[in-house]
């Protein structure tokens, strides 16, 4: 064994390595020190699997020493590579591969970047850390925009954070055939959140502002109410309108900055209104 992911196979550990394939794929390399192609492939696989952080294991079978084992696996040429998963061969190839072909072959058995982000986000969501999970889910969806499971988790997270417009926009992109029970659960949650976000205080201020649309104090008061129910985009738009007229009006700039700071990292609303503020300041 040369590392925690690379093993020299013998009669004592072969069953253990086959059992390990229940947890992660095991790459069995049947090689010979007499074969230059074997030595080259061994080097290529060792480098890649050594960097895979335990997500793949390499089981090196020296056929000069383990001829009986090679016969039991039905090996007819060297080098031969078998990929074992759940105790059974699922893929393999005889002879060498160039670097790109080998990378493509192994990539099929490694978690995709979006899956790693998703797993990190799920841990945070289980700890009710939606603020920290949100940017991970956003990044995962950028990598795999067709993934409905990621989209629904991001929409649910957006609802929890009060980003109702963003949640609604995400749900609107889910195709009819993908609108399953999970979709309907997030949709219902969004509907309830929207209803709760339309308080009597907000309705009264909206009516008053409609009568006097230039009243900056009313705008600020309404922005405060919007932010209390996490309607951040609407609050920022009102405050931005105030700052365009008077950068130093009341507490509007401070409230604007406080809302930006409270939004999750990578939130598109925060990015949009941060750029707007910079355009006013500079």
UniProtKB/TrEMBL annotation:
Gene3D superfamilies in the record: Glutaredoxin (3.40.30.10), Tetratricopeptide repeat domain (1.25.40.10)
Domain of life assignment: Bacteria
A GO BP entry: cell redox homeostasis
Pfam families in alphabetical order: Thioredoxin, TPR_19, TPR_20
Domain Thioredoxin: 17-106
Signal peptide: none
Name used for this protein in its record: Putative thioredoxin
Organism: Alkalimonas amylolytica
């Amino acid at each position: 064994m040369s590392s925690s992911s690379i093993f020299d196979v013998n009669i004592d550990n072969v069953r253990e390595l086959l059992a390990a394939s229940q947890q992660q794929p095991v790459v069995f390399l049947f090689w010979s020190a007499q074969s230059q192609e074997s030595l080259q492939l061994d080097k290529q696989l060792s480098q890649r699997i050594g960097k895979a952080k335990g997500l793949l294991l390499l089981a090196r079978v020296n056929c000069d020493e383990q001829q009986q084992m090679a016969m039991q696996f039905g090996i007819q040429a060297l080098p031969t590579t078998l990929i074992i998963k759940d105790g059974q061969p699922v893929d393999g190839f005889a002879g060498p591969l160039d670097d790109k072909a080998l990378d493509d072959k192994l990539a099929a058995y490694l978690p995709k970047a979006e899956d790693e982000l998703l797993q990190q986000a799920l841990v945070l969501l289980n700890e009710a850390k939606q603020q920290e999970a949100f940017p991970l889910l956003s990044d995962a969806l950028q990598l795999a925009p067709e993934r409905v499971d990621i989209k629904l988790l991001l929409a649910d997270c957006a609802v929890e954070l009060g980003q109702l417009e963003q949640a609604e926009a995400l749900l609107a992109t889910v195709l009819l055939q993908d609108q399953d029970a999970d979709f309907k659960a997030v949709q219902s949650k969004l509907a309830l959140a929207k209803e709760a976000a339309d308080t009597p205080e907000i309705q009264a201020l909206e009516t008053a502002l409609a009568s006097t649309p230039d009243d900056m104090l009313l705008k600020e008061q309404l922005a405060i109410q919007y932010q209390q129910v996490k309607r951040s985009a609407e609050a920022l738009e009102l405050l931005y309108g105030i700052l365009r007229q008077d950068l130093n009006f009341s507490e509007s700039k401070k409230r604007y900055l406080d809302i930006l700071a409270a939004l999750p990292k990578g939130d598109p609303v925060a990015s949009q209104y941060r750029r707007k503020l910079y355009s006013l300041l500079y």
